[in-house]
């Protein structure tokens, strides 16, 4: 468990990785956010945000989406306006999943992957997935509502051996 860091509001999570070598299947990584109710912060997500799922209240937005890691700079980026989330929502977990092909693709198979969490120009977290190299999905950071209604965050690097769909059902669970 990382230390608690209080007072976050509007956060951007960005992800980049290098394309697979010429001739090899594309490496497609996805940023995924899951929102949980105050009443059941480790239960079923109220909603998910990723390339194929939008936030119904517009508070969490996937601004950029890539299927292959090509191009310069950030490949996927997501903005979380935590201070605008409904009071009934108490926890948000953000992770990254690797789309699986015919053969299993883990973080260790993808070159130069890095996720960065920023608030404005302040970098809150940055991680390269080397300590979850054998995993196919991982949580990165979690945000929780504190007693005053503000938001705090903590680093939450935890690897899973799961495809993206299964990961969305596991990512909010308690730590083993
Ligand atoms: Ca993607």
List descriptors:
globular; single chain; 1 helix; mainly beta; 176 residues; binds calcium ion; Lipoxygenase-1; six-stranded antiparallel beta sheet
How would you characterize this protein structure?
By secondary structure, this protein is mainly β. The protein has a single domain, classed as Sandwich (Lipoxygenase-1), CATH 2.60.60.30. It is built from 1 helix and 11 strands. It has a 6-stranded antiparallel beta sheet with strand order 1-11-10-7-3-4. The radius of gyration is 15 Å and the shape is globular. Calcium ion binds at residues 28-30, 51, 65-67, 76.
Q: What about the largest sheet?
A: 6 strands, antiparallel
Strand order of the largest sheet: 1-11-10-7-3-4
The overall number of domains is: 1
The first-level CATH class name: Mainly Beta
Report strand %.
35-45%
How helical, in percent, are the residues? under 10%
Mean pLDDT: 94
Briefly note the CATH topology name. Answer: Lipoxygenase-1
CATH architecture: Sandwich
Tell me the number of helical segments per DSSP (H or I, 4 or more residues long): 1
Q: Which structural category fits the helices and strands? A: mainly beta
Bound heterogens, unique:
calcium ion
Low-confidence stretches: none
Radius of gyration: 15 Å
Order of helices and strands: EEEEEEEEEEEH
DSSP strand count: 11
Q: Outline, from the CA principal axes?
A: globular
What would CATH call the homologous superfamily?
sav2460 like domains
